[in-house]
Structure formats: structure tokens, C-alpha cells
User: What shape does this take?
Amino acid sequence: MNLLLIGNSHTYYNAMPATLAELLRATGEKARVTMLAQGGKDLLYHAASQNAAFNIRYGQYDTVILQDRVSGFDDNAFRQGAAALTEMAREAGSAVLLYLPFSGRNDPAGQEKLTATYLAFCRERHVDVAPVGEAFAHLLRSVPPEKLYREDGQHATPYGSYIAALTLFYALTGRRRALSPDKFDDPGIALGFKPDECRTAHEEALLAVRLVCG
Assistant: This one.
């Protein structure tokens, strides 16, 4: 599975793409992951970038994963940038997956806006989504915010990034059952999380994918 992730700090924090690659490899997928991410940048910025255009056109990616910025999110700019990058990817023969990010820890209204805008785009353009923000929102009902968010209240902790990688993993693979972290080389264990924490993360990531994607 050859993947390109395009985004910003919500993409690269805690080496999340590497965790995604490790999950895929640990479950038998041949994975190669490339990342184009710059802090604070949106998809409209990347759509105008020659670097992104070149990578999409010649990288022979199976899937291009797109994630817009959260702080200063503009739904019109998101739609323009996502549409342009989706068109590039499809012309190159790549599938597209939107990485629906999480809002700030004290901004549930922001999450509602992100979710509504991303899902509307997905319906209109027939694009799949990895609902990371929805996994966060559900988990916040049972875990303290500091489990998922760093001190800045915006970026993920290592555990939050692990959940993001898992949500992308289940969206990409289409698995219908949560994996048991003690039955394969789960990178969450290597990161120092307890087995029950990893099990919860798997279950919540899969639940978010099934609830949003069916």
C-alpha cells in the first residue's frame, strides 16, 4: 500500500504517519508512506504547490490522504483545496481519503463544523473519510482531555496520534473487527501504552469509522 499524506502539524505530530505504516506492516500489508506536511498550512496551499502536484502525478500512490488545517479553518478554502487535490489524485489513478481532524479540546462547535463540512464534501465528491475527530469526540466522554490533547489544547498527545493512526488504518483497510493488540506487533505497545489502552483505542477508532462510513 503506497500512501501520500498531505496536511500540517495534525498530520506529522508524534510521527503519526510512521505509526500508520507500522500498523499496516504488522498486519501483513506492504506499506510505503510519504508525507507532505507544513505547520499551519491548508489544502488550498498544497493544491498550489508544485511539490504536491509532482508527487501526486508521479508517485504512483494507491491512496492520497488529505487533511486541512484546524486553526483558522475556512470551509470555502477547504472545498477548493480538497477539490483540486482530489482531481489531481484521480487523474493519477489514486484513491482519495479525507483525514477529518479533531478540533481544539474546548471547541465542540468547531468539531461539528469540521465534521459537517468534510462529510458534505465526501458525499458530493464520492470520497472516503477517516473520522479521527469523531473518534476523539466519543473518547472524550470517558477519558480526560489531557489523555488526547497536549498542553496547548490543539495538538495530540502520543496516545491521540495513535488513535488517529488507527482510525486511518481501519478506514484504509476496511476491517470490520477491532484487532487485539496482544495478538500482533501493535505499535501502541511499543510506544508504551498498556494493552487495555490499546484495546480501547482500536475499538473507538473502528467504531468511529463504522458509525460515519457504514
